[in-house]
Amino acid sequence: MKKASQQKLPPGWNQKKVQELISYYDHQTEDEGAAEIETAPDASGETWMSVPTKLVSAVARLIEGHKENGTAKNRSATRRRSQKATRT
């Protein structure tokens, strides 16, 4: 019998977090899933797009580099300050 191999998880993930995510989607109704998909484009500060499969790893590396440099965090903070200023 083969020994089960240990899966590598993304940074910040552990087995508990994986199990919680699986449980979340296992217990989600079809209507809840559809509502989640329909509201996804409304997520503030995020954009959904189609990426050719061959480019997914390159795009993921760009995003990780962007996060590591703090650029995403800084832009979000700037955007929040800008939005507050326009509301008042």
State the main characteristics.
single chain; 88 residues; mainly alpha; 2 domains; 4 helices; 0% strand; extended
* Unreliable residue runs: none
Oligomer: single chain
Structural class label: mainly alpha
How many β strands by DSSP?
0
Terminal CA distance reads 67 Å
**Sheet having the most strands:** none
Number of domains: 2
Q: What is the molecular shape?
A: extended
H/E element sequence = HHHH
**Chain-averaged pLDDT:** 80
How many helix segments? 4
The gyration radius over C-alpha positions equals 18 Å
Beta-strand residue fraction: under 5%
Helix content: 55-70%
Describe the protein.
The protein is an all-alpha fold and 88 residues long. 59% of the residues lie in helices and 0% in strands. It starts with 14 loop residues before the first helix and ends with a helix. The model has no long low-confidence stretch (mean pLDDT 80).
Helix-strand blueprint:
Elements: H1 15-26, H2 30-39, H3 56-68, H4 71-87
How would you briefly describe this protein structure?
The protein is 59% helix and 0% strand.
